[in-house]
Each structure stands twice: as structure tokens, then as C-alpha cells.
Specification:
It is a single chain. With about 200 residues, this protein is of the alpha+beta class. The chain is about 20% helix and about 45% strand. The chain has three helices and nine strands. The protein has an eight-stranded antiparallel β-barrel. α1 packs antiparallel against α2 and α2 packs antiparallel against α3. The longest helix has 20 residues. It is globular, with a radius of gyration of 19 Å.
Amino acid sequence: MTNTPSRTGLFLVNYDISTPAIGSPNLTLSLTVNTVHKVVNGFGQITQPVSPPLDLHTRVDGTFTYMTVMPDVTHILVVATGYPPVQWPSHGGIGPVLQPNFELRMVLDKGWQGGTANYTFVEASGRRVEIEKAAVTISGQRGGPIHTLYGPAMQEAAASGDLARMKQLAAQAEQHLSQTAEIQSALAALKAEIGRSERAR
């Protein structure tokens, strides 16, 4: 695992986003970053120690761009929208029409390690809450703050013969971006190696 991911690839990154004000909302954000297509997908959870406690979940999709204001000063702008997560069966026809419950604008350093964010969320009552200049810090949850999913990580896992590691990467890839052509190709190769390793045991 590397602390600064390649600018080409797919990786997971987890953030804690908060302000110093006592009792303010806290956003945890888990994103899959696809640097080939410059898109982000993932999930967010907003909590707040109020009565009743706030616990808002959102499915997040968005894009990012690299912003270079000077030759050696590059930042990353992430713009995303979130919707309430809904479990809808594949044979269930057209799903419900949902209104966004979350909007995000986040400026990060070029290594995806941290930055600042402005975001808006909608409470169950319908009230919109705006948070400005929240600090974005990288989080160590889910086995590490940044985790590469394809390219070197899948190739290294397949070459290692570590069946548990290969299965873990395959499950993560299926969960996050199995619809992406690049992931489908790498995932097919990884599954073939899983099958070969299982038969050899």
C-alpha cells in the first residue's frame, strides 16, 4: 500500500470531515476514485450528537478535476451529489424517484491526503443544513486510508498466491465498480487466478 496513489488507477480512500465547533455534524466518507474517468463513487454517513441523534446515510457519486494554479501547486476539486441509499431488486422495475440528500464540494491536496470541504445535507424533517470550511483528514478505517484496487494491487495479489487476499480484492472490486470496463477486465483475470489456486489446493 502506498500513501500517495498513482494518478492512473482505481483506489479506495476514507475521510473524516468535521469542524472544530462543539456538537457540529461529522461526516465520514468512503470513496472509490477512478482516475481514468475522473469519477468518484461511495457512501457517506453524517452523525451529530443532538436529540434525537442525527444519523444520515447517503450514496455519493461525483467527478473530480486537477487544478494547477502555479507550476508546482496542484489541488483536486471533488464535486459530488448524494442520494438516500435504497435496496431495489434487479427485477423490481423502475425504482423510486429520490431527491438528493447531500451535496459536496471538496478541495484536496494532490496526494488525496486532506483539504477542506463545504457540504449540504437534508435532515429527515426536510431542513437543509450547510457546513462550510470543514477540515478533511484521511481516515484509517477499513484496513487503511488509501487502498489501490486494480493495476499493481490485483497483479501483486494474483502473483502472491494468497487466496484470501485475492478474494478480498475481488469482493471489493465487485462491490464498488464492477460496471467499469477496466475493472471488469482486471477482475476477470483475478477470478481466473482464484479458480486456478483453488483447484491446485
